[in-house]
Amino acid sequence: MSADTVRGAAPRRRGPVADGLTMTRRHMAHLARTPEEAALYFALPIMFVLVFGYVFGSGMSVAGGGNYREFLVPGVFAMTMLYGMGSSGSAIAVDARRGVVDRFRSMPIARSALLTGRCTADMLRGVIELLVVLMCGLLVGWTWHRGIGRMLLALLLVLALRLAITWIGIYLGLLVRNEDAVGGIVFPLAFPLTAVSNVFTSPELMPGWLGTVSEWNPLSATVTALRDLFGNPGVGGSGWASDNALLLAILWPAVLTAIFAPLAVRRYKALGR
Description:
Largest sheet: none
Order of helices and strands: HHHHHHHHHHHH
Strand content: under 5%
Structural class: mainly alpha
Helix content: over 70%
Number of strands: 0
Radius of gyration: 21 Å
Shape: elongated
Distance between the termini: 36 Å
Number of helices: 12
Low-confidence stretches: 1-11
């Protein structure tokens, strides 16, 4: 048998980028095959806007005045990204529990493909969720007032937050390897983080110490920056965290990504030992 024949019979590596894109298509195809799951996640931000905007909104006030729905929608942008942690963690946990991760590790593909594909697919899903919130917000009377450039910067901040949240979810999924357990972890983490933030109410209306905690909440930094960039009411605050919300909205996701992405990669490598 000639050397050319042997080379032709051997599986060819396409490179980490191509393999990562293949994994991305796999994850997006799974989303398309489970429309009920997609409908649930995409309906969640709509319910947040409608329930809090119309049912509870009449009893809510905004520090400094302003329309509550315009105050609320930037918070829903950030909160939707936060709850994406559950879908990221559950999906990777299912693959780990069913042995899919081990199967892909044994194939002639880039070792990074599964994680980069998962991350890219979740970011694409985040873009779709972001567009859902955007359209829902416009329908209930929210809008931006400070130009298209600032609006695009605000949306980039939302996606930066989603990137950090995605890596946290991937790490939890690889760590726990059980989708039900991941859900049991994510909600106790996400709910208090949302409650003690400026998503639904201004920190100025909270007790002093709780308002300070809220201002330093990573979620609050993104929400405050969004309200400022959109020109929506409720920016408020007089502390360093509120005055430098844009800086913190960049730093918090960068720090969280720098922590949890390496942890996820290390955990992924440990699965094969």
